[in-house]
Amino acid sequence: LYWYTHFYLHNVTGMPVIRPLWAEFAHDEETFNIENEFLVGDSLLVRPVTESSVTEVDVYFPGKEDIWYDVDTYEVHNHGRVNVPVTYTKIPVYQRGGTIVPRKLRVRRSSQLMQNDPITLIVALDSKGTASGNLYMDDGATHKYLHRTDSSVLLQYTYEDNILKSEIIGVKHFDSPSWLERVIIVGLKPGNYKATAFNGKTETKLLTSYDNDKKILAIRKPLLSMAKGWHIKIH
To answer: Where is the signal peptide (predicted)?
Structure first.
């Protein structure tokens, strides 16, 4: 989903999917000579392990005001260099604070079998408590998106003032069977949170749980269409 969306955005804007750090952090001169890290889109930082028999690697986190979250543990990192542990099954990948990344977390034997799987939105908050991201969807097989308005959709997600919004950009629309299975909000201060989904005139109270150790709020089974507009209010 995230890759597919950024290949679409590359087709529209020309921005490469895989980028050097300085493409997003031109003000940070230390990124100019870093060649062992890269960004996927504007949201994910990857530090591949190319050295043999190592148990830790050095990772540089760009952006003096930026927050970075480990995509597996949600451990927080700030600007600077840090030695992080690595294994055969774990390489350093981090989501940038202020971004929203859609993911399909049900493991199947092929990506084709995941075509209509439900989606999880990972909302990684920045220092201001906000985040945004995109999702592009089409049938994944034909070129109908080129000449029809009912064969693709580009959505924008925003999180601000404790409200997560899904909005369609432009006039195109697409009837996808994919639905929102879970929302994970990372970097939220401890609290007894509740959530309500608003879908047109329908209002639904949602199941929530907060992890004090990881500082994440999980909102379970909102059952909202991934190709439509809606919003979820946290209170």
So the answer is: none
Residues 69 and 187: their CA atoms lie apart, in Å, by 9
Nearest of 181, 83, 182 to residue 123 by alpha carbon:
182
**98-234 matches 13-96 in CATH topology:** yes
State the DSSP code for 181.
Answer: E
Q: What is each CA distance from 178 to 117, 120, 154, 199, 205, in whole angstroms?
A: 6, 11, 14, 16, 21
**CA–CA gap between residue 101 and residue 120 (Å, rounded):** 8
* Residue ranges of domains in the chain: 13-96, 98-234
* Closest alpha carbon to 221 in 229, 232, 210: 232
Distance CA 218, CA 228 (A): 21
For the record, the structure tokens of 101 come out as: 């990344």
- Fold classified for 13-96: Immunoglobulin-like (2.60.40)
pLDDT band at 114 (very low <50, low <70, confident <90, very high): confident
Determine the topology of domain 98-234 in CATH: Immunoglobulin-like (2.60.40)
Sign of the Cα pseudo-torsion (218, 219, 221, 226, in order): negative
pLDDT tens-digit series, residues 45-99: 999 998 888 999 999 999 999 999 999 999 999 999 999 999 988 899 999 999 9
Helix (H, G, I), strand (E, B) or coil at 22: helix
Question: Which tokens sit at 67?
Answer: 């927050």
**Percent share of the chain, pLDDT over 90:** 75
CA–CA gap between residue 42 and residue 29 (Å, rounded): 18
